[in-house]
Design goal:
alpha/beta; Rossmann fold; 457 residues; three-stranded mixed β-sheet; five-stranded parallel β-sheet; extended; 4 domains
Amino acid sequence: MSLFSPFSGPAFQDTPAALQPLAERMRPRTLDEFIGQEKLLGPGKPLRLQIESDNLSSMLLWGPPGCGKTTLARVIARLTRSEFISFSAVLTGIKEIKEVMAQGERKSHSSQRTIVFVDEVHRFNKAQQDAFLPHVEAGHILFIGATTENPSFEVISPLLSRTKVYVLEALTTPQIVDLLHRALADPERGLGDAHLDATDDVLFRIASYSNGDARIAYNTLELCARGAKSADPSATSGTPAVRRITRELLEDVLQRKLLRYDKAGEEHYNLISALHKSVRNSDPDAALYWLIRMIESGEDCLYLARRIVRMASEDIGLAEPGALALTLAARDAFDFLGAPEGHLALAQAVVYLSLAPKSNAVYTAYGQVLDDVHKTEADPVPLHLRNAVTGLMKNIGYGEGYKYAHNFDDKLTDMTCLPDNLSGRVYYKPTDQGFEQRLRLRLDEIRKVKSRATGKG
């Protein structure tokens, strides 16, 4: 088999199936087997329609390792009527590229189309990428490149402008758990004949450890399968003994301790409660401990980011208005960096929240307003607060008595803005913590001005 031999039809590899890694054997062979990337490959999506109709254009597949870039290329190879040539940027030089381009050009003259798939295209230098350009532009080949790096920086502009970039996302933990279940059940390509048993907790740990990379998850499961022992070694019946993949075996394979954790159970809620209360109690050390313990236990970090953002509004509020912006920035940083680099942004956020001045005044006010909304009658909006957008509305009193604050020296009026049945209600009561102390002084000033205005009236 040459370095860039075409692969099409069912046989992509010369290696016997029994000797192939589980990740290779379990590669989806059809679009319906594909898990993840619904935004690109879901029913009716443009890329899926292009593949099914064999009406493709040159493209770049950009996404993290193990998300399905090469698999998608192989699915295309199965479905296309073109000659499909694959080679790796790690092993290929200018000479090989020119040979492939020459083949593609000769076949294009006889109305035969050639699709060239280049894995890890970001590893090609400028000269190597330049070698594709005239042939892509002339239509001699249809180019498909796969990269884990941002094409804006790693692919030359002329080639980038001639391709459509499709962004593939890392697989979610539940999606990888589905893949592992599939591998355990499949007797032909997977481990179905090995009579393995694994709890959902163990599969969740494997999926979480893989960090969105299906290949890592399959490799871990395969290592566990090799070390799994019979659940009942003394059994002598004709039925094959079930071999269990236990937490202890998984710890040995991963060479790391698995912390006790139940993502959907009590321990999950216990730990997030401990994190939240440590932040509220201004204890950065404890907050860091509980955060990192949850991360190391396999918690979804975007869930943690959402809870941290919530803490900024619930427990810090307007005592430190910048807290909300910082926690949102931490969320975005994790989303951008991923694990493990993004973990530090979450740690920075919980330390900041722990040390920030605390106030639940907005949280309390929200609860009181919500209670009134549900328990009191929904009085109509006072007429003076309504806009008179028609003559009829003006004639029946809409907007009558409205006072435009900017027309007054203090930019304040004594006008009531609550419904009549809630007139005089006070919900927001700022504390003397941090920035909220300034807000309290401002609110006191507003109330004094309004009181004077009411007295004059």
